[in-house]
Protein backbone atom coordinates (compact mmCIF):
# COMPACT_ATOMS: atom_id res chain seq x y z
CA UNK A 1 0.00 0.00 0.00
CA UNK A 2 2.80 2.42 0.91
CA UNK A 3 4.64 1.60 -2.29
CA UNK A 4 1.56 2.55 -4.33
CA UNK A 5 1.24 5.88 -2.50
CA UNK A 6 4.81 6.96 -3.27
CA UNK A 7 5.13 9.25 -6.27
CA UNK A 8 6.79 7.62 -9.27
CA UNK A 9 9.25 10.50 -9.47
CA UNK A 10 10.48 9.72 -5.91
CA UNK A 11 10.73 5.97 -6.35
CA UNK A 12 14.47 5.88 -7.10
CA UNK A 13 15.15 8.22 -4.20
CA UNK A 14 13.14 5.98 -1.87
CA UNK A 15 15.00 2.88 -3.04
CA UNK A 16 18.36 4.59 -2.48
CA UNK A 17 17.70 6.49 0.75
CA UNK A 18 14.42 5.27 2.26
CA UNK A 19 10.99 6.87 2.51
CA UNK A 20 11.82 9.46 5.17
CA UNK A 21 14.89 10.99 3.53
CA UNK A 22 13.30 10.91 0.07
CA UNK A 23 10.48 13.08 1.45
CA UNK A 24 12.57 15.40 3.66
CA UNK A 25 12.04 18.64 1.74
CA UNK A 26 8.48 17.68 0.83
CA UNK A 27 7.68 17.22 4.54
CA UNK A 28 9.32 20.51 5.52
CA UNK A 29 7.35 22.35 2.83
CA UNK A 30 4.04 20.84 3.89
CA UNK A 31 4.67 21.70 7.54
CA UNK A 32 5.54 25.27 6.56
CA UNK A 33 2.42 25.63 4.42
CA UNK A 34 0.22 24.26 7.22
CA UNK A 35 1.92 26.51 9.78
CA UNK A 36 1.48 29.66 7.69
CA UNK A 37 -2.16 28.87 6.94
CA UNK A 38 -2.78 28.10 10.63
CA UNK A 39 -1.35 31.51 11.60
CA UNK A 40 -4.10 33.16 9.56
CA UNK A 41 -6.88 30.73 10.47
CA UNK A 42 -6.59 30.53 14.28
CA UNK A 43 -8.00 34.04 14.71
CA UNK A 44 -11.20 33.74 12.65
CA UNK A 45 -11.87 30.14 13.72
CA UNK A 46 -10.63 30.01 17.33
CA UNK A 47 -10.41 33.65 18.40
CA UNK A 48 -6.65 33.35 18.98
CA UNK A 49 -5.16 36.07 16.81
CA UNK A 50 -1.58 35.48 15.71
CA UNK A 51 -2.02 37.39 12.47
CA UNK A 52 -4.85 39.69 11.45
CA UNK A 53 -5.53 39.96 7.75
CA UNK A 54 -4.72 37.62 4.92
CA UNK A 55 -1.93 36.60 2.57
CA UNK A 56 -2.22 39.97 0.82
CA UNK A 57 -1.86 42.18 3.87
CA UNK A 58 -1.64 41.39 7.56
CA UNK A 59 -0.26 42.32 10.93
CA UNK A 60 1.71 39.70 12.87
CA UNK A 61 1.25 39.64 16.67
CA UNK A 62 -0.03 43.21 16.49
CA UNK A 63 3.54 44.37 15.87
CA UNK A 64 4.86 43.55 12.42
CA UNK A 65 3.08 44.71 9.28
CA UNK A 66 3.31 42.43 6.23
CA UNK A 67 2.21 43.25 2.70
CA UNK A 68 2.47 41.23 -0.49
CA UNK A 69 4.72 43.29 -2.80
CA UNK A 70 2.65 42.21 -5.82
CA UNK A 71 -0.48 43.58 -4.15
CA UNK A 72 1.51 46.67 -3.20
CA UNK A 73 2.52 47.19 -6.83
CA UNK A 74 -1.10 46.87 -8.01
CA UNK A 75 -2.11 49.43 -5.41
CA UNK A 76 0.50 51.85 -6.70
CA UNK A 77 -0.53 51.57 -10.35
CA UNK A 78 -4.15 51.86 -9.21
CA UNK A 79 -3.23 55.32 -7.88
CA UNK A 80 -3.63 54.41 -4.21
CA UNK A 81 -0.56 55.57 -2.34
CA UNK A 82 -0.16 53.05 0.49
CA UNK A 83 0.26 54.11 4.10
CA UNK A 84 3.66 53.67 5.75
CA UNK A 85 2.94 50.23 7.35
CA UNK A 86 2.02 48.85 3.92
CA UNK A 87 5.23 50.21 2.41
CA UNK A 88 7.46 48.79 5.13
CA UNK A 89 5.50 45.51 5.06
CA UNK A 90 5.99 45.13 1.31
CA UNK A 91 9.71 45.93 1.56
CA UNK A 92 10.08 43.37 4.37
CA UNK A 93 8.37 40.59 2.39
CA UNK A 94 10.34 41.48 -0.75
CA UNK A 95 13.59 41.34 1.24
CA UNK A 96 12.68 37.91 2.64
CA UNK A 97 12.03 36.44 -0.80
CA UNK A 98 15.13 38.05 -2.29
CA UNK A 99 16.97 36.17 0.45
CA UNK A 100 15.28 32.73 0.29
CA UNK A 101 14.17 32.68 -3.37
CA UNK A 102 11.28 34.51 -5.00
CA UNK A 103 9.29 31.45 -5.89
CA UNK A 104 9.88 29.95 -2.49
CA UNK A 105 6.51 31.60 -1.93
CA UNK A 106 5.00 29.15 -4.42
CA UNK A 107 6.67 26.04 -3.03
CA UNK A 108 6.74 26.82 0.69
CA UNK A 109 3.85 29.20 1.47
CA UNK A 110 1.09 29.22 -1.14
CA UNK A 111 -1.72 26.81 -0.08
CA UNK A 112 -2.76 26.33 -3.71
CA UNK A 113 0.57 24.52 -4.22
CA UNK A 114 -0.87 21.62 -2.22
CA UNK A 115 -3.75 21.40 -4.70
CA UNK A 116 -1.50 21.47 -7.76
CA UNK A 117 0.88 18.91 -6.26
CA UNK A 118 -2.14 16.66 -5.59
CA UNK A 119 -3.23 17.01 -9.21
CA UNK A 120 0.27 16.08 -10.41
CA UNK A 121 0.28 13.03 -8.12
CA UNK A 122 -3.12 12.02 -9.54
CA UNK A 123 -1.76 12.37 -13.08
CA UNK A 124 1.03 9.94 -12.22
CA UNK A 125 -1.26 7.41 -10.55
CA UNK A 126 -3.92 7.47 -13.25
CA UNK A 127 -1.47 7.51 -16.15
CA UNK A 128 -2.76 10.80 -17.53
CA UNK A 129 0.00 12.06 -19.82
CA UNK A 130 -1.89 14.28 -22.23
CA UNK A 131 -0.55 17.83 -22.15
CA UNK A 132 -2.01 20.80 -23.94
CA UNK A 133 0.75 23.09 -25.11
CA UNK A 134 0.72 26.16 -22.91
CA UNK A 135 3.27 28.93 -23.21
CA UNK A 136 5.05 29.74 -19.94
CA UNK A 137 5.11 33.40 -21.02
CA UNK A 138 1.32 33.46 -20.61
CA UNK A 139 1.72 34.12 -16.89
CA UNK A 140 3.82 37.20 -17.70
CA UNK A 141 1.09 38.49 -20.00
CA UNK A 142 -1.48 37.85 -17.25
CA UNK A 143 0.79 39.66 -14.77
CA UNK A 144 0.96 42.65 -17.10
CA UNK A 145 -2.81 42.42 -17.62
CA UNK A 146 -3.51 42.62 -13.88
CA UNK A 147 -1.35 45.74 -13.60
CA UNK A 148 -3.10 47.35 -16.57
CA UNK A 149 -6.50 46.40 -15.12
CA UNK A 150 -5.51 47.92 -11.77
CA UNK A 151 -4.40 51.12 -13.49
CA UNK A 152 -7.64 51.38 -15.49
CA UNK A 153 -10.03 50.52 -12.66
CA UNK A 154 -8.21 51.93 -9.64
CA UNK A 155 -8.53 48.58 -7.90
CA UNK A 156 -6.23 45.74 -6.87
CA UNK A 157 -7.54 43.77 -9.81
CA UNK A 158 -6.03 40.32 -9.13
CA UNK A 159 -7.67 40.12 -5.71
CA UNK A 160 -11.04 39.56 -7.39
CA UNK A 161 -9.73 36.25 -8.78
CA UNK A 162 -6.79 35.34 -6.54
CA UNK A 163 -7.29 31.64 -5.61
CA UNK A 164 -5.23 32.08 -2.42
CA UNK A 165 -7.46 34.83 -1.04
CA UNK A 166 -10.62 33.06 -2.18
CA UNK A 167 -9.45 29.81 -0.57
CA UNK A 168 -8.78 31.56 2.74
CA UNK A 169 -12.26 33.08 2.71
CA UNK A 170 -13.74 29.68 1.86
CA UNK A 171 -11.93 28.10 4.83
CA UNK A 172 -13.38 30.74 7.14
CA UNK A 173 -16.94 30.77 5.85
CA UNK A 174 -17.11 27.12 4.76
CA UNK A 175 -18.75 28.13 1.50
CA UNK A 176 -17.98 30.42 -1.36
CA UNK A 177 -16.68 30.69 -4.87
CA UNK A 178 -13.20 29.92 -3.54
CA UNK A 179 -13.89 26.18 -3.59
CA UNK A 180 -15.07 26.47 -7.22
CA UNK A 181 -11.86 28.28 -8.20
CA UNK A 182 -9.70 25.73 -6.39
CA UNK A 183 -11.58 22.84 -8.04
CA UNK A 184 -11.04 24.52 -11.41
CA UNK A 185 -7.29 24.81 -10.75
CA UNK A 186 -7.15 21.12 -9.72
CA UNK A 187 -9.02 19.96 -12.83
CA UNK A 188 -6.90 22.22 -15.03
CA UNK A 189 -3.70 20.63 -13.73
CA UNK A 190 -5.18 17.13 -13.84
CA UNK A 191 -6.73 17.08 -17.30
CA UNK A 192 -5.29 19.96 -19.35
CA UNK A 193 -1.53 20.15 -18.73
CA UNK A 194 1.17 19.23 -16.23
CA UNK A 195 1.60 22.09 -13.76
CA UNK A 196 -0.73 24.19 -15.90
CA UNK A 197 -1.59 26.73 -13.22
CA UNK A 198 1.66 27.37 -11.35
CA UNK A 199 4.04 27.02 -14.29
CA UNK A 200 2.02 28.68 -17.03
CA UNK A 201 -0.81 30.91 -15.79
CA UNK A 202 -0.39 32.22 -12.24
CA UNK A 203 0.70 35.91 -12.24
CA UNK A 204 1.76 35.68 -8.59
CA UNK A 205 4.33 33.04 -9.52
CA UNK A 206 5.44 35.20 -12.44
CA UNK A 207 5.96 38.18 -10.13
CA UNK A 208 7.94 36.20 -7.56
CA UNK A 209 9.93 34.60 -10.37
CA UNK A 210 11.14 38.04 -11.39
CA UNK A 211 11.95 38.84 -7.76
CA UNK A 212 13.82 35.55 -7.36
CA UNK A 213 16.33 36.18 -10.13
CA UNK A 214 18.61 37.85 -7.59
CA UNK A 215 17.89 35.66 -4.57
CA UNK A 216 20.64 34.37 -2.31
CA UNK A 217 19.49 30.82 -1.49
CA UNK A 218 19.96 28.41 -4.38
CA UNK A 219 19.94 24.72 -5.21
CA UNK A 220 23.26 23.53 -6.57
CA UNK A 221 24.03 20.53 -8.77
CA UNK A 222 27.28 20.35 -6.85
CA UNK A 223 28.02 16.70 -7.69
CA UNK A 224 26.72 16.68 -11.24
CA UNK A 225 29.45 14.26 -12.36
CA UNK A 226 27.59 11.58 -10.38
CA UNK A 227 24.40 12.06 -12.43
CA UNK A 228 23.11 8.81 -13.96
CA UNK A 229 20.57 10.51 -16.26
CA UNK A 230 17.72 8.69 -14.49
CA UNK A 231 15.48 11.75 -15.03
CA UNK A 232 14.02 11.73 -11.51
CA UNK A 233 14.85 15.42 -10.92
CA UNK A 234 13.25 16.49 -14.20
CA UNK A 235 10.13 14.45 -13.47
CA UNK A 236 9.55 15.90 -10.02
CA UNK A 237 10.56 19.52 -10.72
CA UNK A 238 7.62 21.92 -11.31
CA UNK A 239 9.90 23.91 -13.64
CA UNK A 240 12.30 21.32 -15.10
CA UNK A 241 13.88 23.78 -17.57
CA UNK A 242 15.64 25.48 -14.65
CA UNK A 243 17.79 22.39 -13.95
CA UNK A 244 19.48 21.98 -17.34
CA UNK A 245 22.20 24.70 -17.21
CA UNK A 246 23.43 23.65 -13.77
CA UNK A 247 23.22 19.88 -14.28
CA UNK A 248 24.36 19.61 -17.90
CA UNK A 249 26.98 22.35 -17.90
CA UNK A 250 30.69 21.60 -17.94
CA UNK A 251 33.98 23.11 -16.91
CA UNK A 252 33.59 26.46 -15.22
CA UNK A 253 29.85 26.66 -15.89
CA UNK A 254 28.01 27.45 -12.67
CA UNK A 255 26.45 24.53 -10.82
CA UNK A 256 23.88 26.80 -9.21
CA UNK A 257 20.30 26.77 -10.44
CA UNK A 258 19.95 30.48 -11.08
CA UNK A 259 16.69 30.70 -13.02
CA UNK A 260 14.04 32.79 -11.30
CA UNK A 261 11.43 30.07 -11.92
CA UNK A 262 13.13 27.71 -9.43
CA UNK A 263 10.92 27.28 -6.34
CA UNK A 264 13.76 26.06 -4.09
CA UNK A 265 11.32 23.28 -3.22
CA UNK A 266 14.04 20.65 -2.80
CA UNK A 267 12.17 18.11 -4.94
CA UNK A 268 15.31 17.39 -6.96
CA UNK A 269 17.23 16.78 -3.73
CA UNK A 270 14.58 14.37 -2.44
CA UNK A 271 14.27 12.41 -5.66
CA UNK A 272 17.93 12.08 -6.68
CA UNK A 273 19.27 8.59 -5.85
CA UNK A 274 22.95 9.66 -6.07
CA UNK A 275 22.86 12.98 -4.17
CA UNK A 276 23.71 15.35 -7.01
CA UNK A 277 21.88 18.34 -5.51
CA UNK A 278 22.34 20.47 -2.39
CA UNK A 279 20.52 23.45 -0.91
CA UNK A 280 23.10 26.20 -0.70
CA UNK A 281 23.72 29.88 -1.43
CA UNK A 282 25.43 32.01 -4.03
CA UNK A 283 28.21 32.49 -1.48
CA UNK A 284 28.97 28.75 -1.27
CA UNK A 285 28.02 27.25 -4.64
UniProtKB/TrEMBL annotation:
Q: Where are the transmembrane segments?
A: 34-51, 81-100, 140-158, 170-192
Q: Which GO terms describe its molecular function?
A: 4 iron, 4 sulfur cluster binding; metal ion binding
**Per the record's keyword annotation, is Iron included, yes or no?**
yes
Q: Report the residue ranges that make up the 4Fe-4S ferredoxin-type domain in this protein.
A: 217-248, 254-282
Keyword Calcium assigned: no
A GO cellular component annotation in the UniProt record: plasma membrane
Q: What is this protein called?
A: Methylamine utilization ferredoxin-type protein MauN
* A Pfam family the protein falls into: Fer4_5
Q: Which UniProt keywords apply?
A: 4Fe-4S, Electron transport, Iron, Iron-sulfur, Membrane, Metal-binding, Repeat, Transmembrane, Transmembrane helix, Transport
The cross-references to SUPFAM superfamilies, in alphabetical order and at most eight, read:
4Fe-4S ferredoxins (SSF54862)
Amino acid sequence: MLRWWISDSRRLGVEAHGVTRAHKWWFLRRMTQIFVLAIFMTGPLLGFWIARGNFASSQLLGLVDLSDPYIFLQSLVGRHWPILPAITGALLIAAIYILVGGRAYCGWVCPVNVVTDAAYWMREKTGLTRDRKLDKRTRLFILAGTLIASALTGTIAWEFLNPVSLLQRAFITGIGIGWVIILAVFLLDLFVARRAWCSHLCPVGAFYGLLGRVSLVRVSARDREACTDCGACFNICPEPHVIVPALKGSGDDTRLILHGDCQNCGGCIDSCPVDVFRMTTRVRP
